[in-house]
Inverse folding.
C-alpha cells in the first residue's frame, strides 16, 4: 500500500477510531479528575462525552462518505453498513442517556468505556466481509458485554447472569471458530463472497455441512435463537437495566446483520443442500430454528411475571420472525431484515426506558409493579403502549410493517413459496399469541388500580424525552415506513447485490 492508500484506509476507519478515542477520553476524564464528585454528575459528564463522540463518528460517516474494500474484504465500507453503523451509534447514545439516572455502579468511566468498546466491536462487525475479522469483532463485542452484565457488584443475580452468559458465549465462540476454520480449510479463503464461489466449485460436501451447522450454532447464540437461548432470560433479568437494553438492541442489530451476510452471501450455494450424500442446507436447518424460536419464545413469555424476562422471551420469538426473512431473495428481502431489526431495537430501548423508571420508583419489574401506571405517569404509560403494540405487530406502528415486509418477502421467493408458507402462517399465529402477554402488561398499566398510598412517579426529564422521542419514531415509521426502507433498498442496489 502506498501513502494515499493508508490515508484512504484511515478515513474509512475514522468513525471506529473516534469511538475508541472517546472511550479512552471518558475513562481518563473520570479517573483523573472526577473521582470525588457526585455520581450523578460523573454519569452526566460521561454520557455527554459519549454522545459527542458518537455524534462525531456519525457526522464523519455522512459528511465524508467513503466506499471501498481493503485487504480483501477485511474492512469494507458501503452505503448499507454505514446506515447500520448509524443505527448502532444512535442506540449507544440512547443507552448512555438512560444510564445517567441509574445507581448500579460508581465506576462511571469504566462503564461508559466498555459501552463504547462494545459499540466499536459492533461497528467493525458491520464493516467486514472476512471470517477472521468477524470473529475478532464478535469477541470484542462479547467480552465487553460479559463485563457489562456483571457490572452491578451488589447484585448476586448480575454475577450469576454474567457467568452464564460467559460460559455459553465461550462455548458458542468455539463452535463458530471451528466452523470458520473448516470453511477456510475447504476453500482456502476467509473472504465471505469468495467463499460462496469456492463452495459452488466444490459441490456438495459433508465437511461443509458440518461447518455450516457449527456456524449456525455460534451465531444462534449471539441472536438468542432456540435452542441457543438459555442465557438470554437470565442476562436480561440480572444485568443492569441499560446493559440489558443495549444487549437487546445494539448487539442484535450487528449480530443479525453479519449473520445475514454470512448465510445469504457466503453460503448461498448451500441454501437447500443436496440429495447427493444427504447434504443438508442451511434453509431447512434455520427453518426449524425459526419455528422453535417463535413457538417457545411466545409460549414461555405467557408464563412470566417479570417484565424483564417477558421481554427476553419476546426477543427470542422476534429472533424467529427475523430468521424467516433469511429465506427470501432479492434486495427488498435483505432490506426488510435490516428494517425489522432496526425498528425492533428502537422499540426495545424505549420499553426498557419505561421499565427503568418503574424499577427505580416502585422497586421491581413484576407485572403488579405496573399497576395504575397510567395515572402515576401518563406519558410513560402512553409510550409503553406504543412500544408493546408495535412489538405485537399492530398497525399502524413500525412493528406491523416490519413483519409485513418480512413475511411478504418470504412468500415472494420464486420456486420455493410453499416451503415457507407454513412458517409465515406460524409467524402470524404466534404474533396473535404475543398480543396476549403484551396486553397483560397493558392491563396492569391502564385497568388495574394502584394502591391508595401510591404516588405519582418522578420521571427524569431525559428519560421521558428519550421514551417520547422513540414512541414518536415508531409511530412515524409505521405511518411512513419508506423513510427508512427506501434508503436501505437504495443502498443495497448501489452495492450491486
Amino acid at each position: 500500500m502506498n501513502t494515499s492508500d493508508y490515508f484512504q484506509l484511515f478515513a474509512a476507519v475514522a468513525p471506529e477510531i473516534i469511538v475508541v478515542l472517546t472511550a479512552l477520553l471518558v475513562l481518563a476524564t473520570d479517573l483523573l479528575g472526577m473521582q470525588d464528585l457526585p455520581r450523578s454528575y460523573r454519569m452526566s459528564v460521561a454520557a455527554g462525552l459519549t454522545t459527542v463522540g458518537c455524534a462525531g463518528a456519525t457526522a464523519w460517516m455522512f459528511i465524508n462518505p467513503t466506499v471501498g474494500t481493503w485487504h480483501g474484504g477485511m474492512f469494507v465500507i458501503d452505503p448499507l453498513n454505514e446506515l447500520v453503523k448509524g443505527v448502532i451509534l444512535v442506540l449507544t447514545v440512547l443507552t448512555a442517556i438512560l444510564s445517567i439516572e441509574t445507581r448500579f455502579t460508581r465506576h462511571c468511566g469504566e462503564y461508559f468505556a466498555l459501552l463504547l468498546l462494545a459499540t466499536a466491536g459492533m461497528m467493525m462487525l458491520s464493516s467486514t466481509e472476512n471470517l477472521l475479522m468477524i470473529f475478532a469483532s464478535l469477541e470484542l463485542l462479547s467480552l465487553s458485554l460479559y463485563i457489562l452484565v456483571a457490572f452491578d457488584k451488589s447484585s448476586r443475580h448480575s454475577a450469576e447472569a454474567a457467568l452464564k452468559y460467559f460460559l455459553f458465549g465461550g462455548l458458542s465462540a468455539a463452535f463458530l471458530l471451528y466452523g470458520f476454520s473448516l470453511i477456510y480449510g475447504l476453500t482456502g479463503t476467509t473472504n465471505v463472497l469468495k467463499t460462496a464461489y469456492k463452495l459452488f466449485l466444490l459441490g456438495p460436501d459433508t465437511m461443509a455441512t458440518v461447518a455450516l451447522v457449527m456456524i449456525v450454532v455460534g451465531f444462534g447464540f449471539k441472536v438468542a435463537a432456540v435452542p441457543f437461548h438459555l442465557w438470554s432470560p437470565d442476562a436480561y433479568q440480572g444485568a443492569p437495566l441499560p446493559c440489558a437494553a443495549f444487549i437487546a438492541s445494539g448487539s442484535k442489530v450487528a449480530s443479525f446483520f453479519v449473520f445475514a451476510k454470512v448465510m445469504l452471501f457466503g453460503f448461498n450455494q448451500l441454501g437447500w443442500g443436496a440429495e447427493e450424500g444427504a447434504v443438508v442446507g442451511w434453509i431447512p436447518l434455520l427453518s426449524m430454528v425459526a419455528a422453535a424460536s417463535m413457538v417457545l419464545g411466545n409460549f414461555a413469555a405467557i408464563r412470566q411475571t417479570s417484565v424483564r424476562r417477558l421481554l427476553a422471551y419476546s426477543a427470542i420469538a422476534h429472533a424467529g420472525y427475523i430468521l424467516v426473512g433469511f429465506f427470501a431473495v432479492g434486495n427488498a428481502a435483505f432490506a426488510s431484515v435490516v428494517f425489522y431489526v432496526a425498528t425492533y431495537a428502537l422499540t426495545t430501548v424505549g420499553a426498557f426506558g419505561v421499565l427503568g423508571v418503574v424499577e427505580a420508583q416502585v422497586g421491581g419489574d413484576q407485572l403488579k409493579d405496573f399497576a395504575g401506571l397510567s395515572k402515576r405517569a401518563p406519558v410513560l404509560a402512553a409510550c409503553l403502549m406504543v412500544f408493546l403494540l408495535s412489538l405485537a405487530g399492530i398497525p399502524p406502528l413500525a412493528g406491523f410493517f416490519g413483519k409485513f415486509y418480512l413475511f411478504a418477502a418470504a412468500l415472494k421467493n420464486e420456486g420455493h413459496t410453499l416451503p415457507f408458507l407454513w412458517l409465515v402462517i406460524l409467524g402470524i399465529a404466534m404474533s396473535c399469541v404475543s398480543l396476549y402477554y403484551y396486553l397483560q402488561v397493558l392491563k396492569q398499566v391502564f385497568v388495574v388500580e394502584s394502591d391508595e398510598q401510591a404516588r405519582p412517579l418522578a420521571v427524569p426529564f431525559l428519560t421521558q424525552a428519550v421514551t417520547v422521542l422513540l414512541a414518536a419514531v415508531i409511530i412515524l415509521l409505521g405511518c411512513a415506513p419508506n423513510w427508512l426502507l427506501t434508503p436501505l433498498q437504495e443502498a443495497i442496489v448501489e452495492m450491486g447485490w
The beta strands are 68-70, 75-77, 273-274, 279-280.
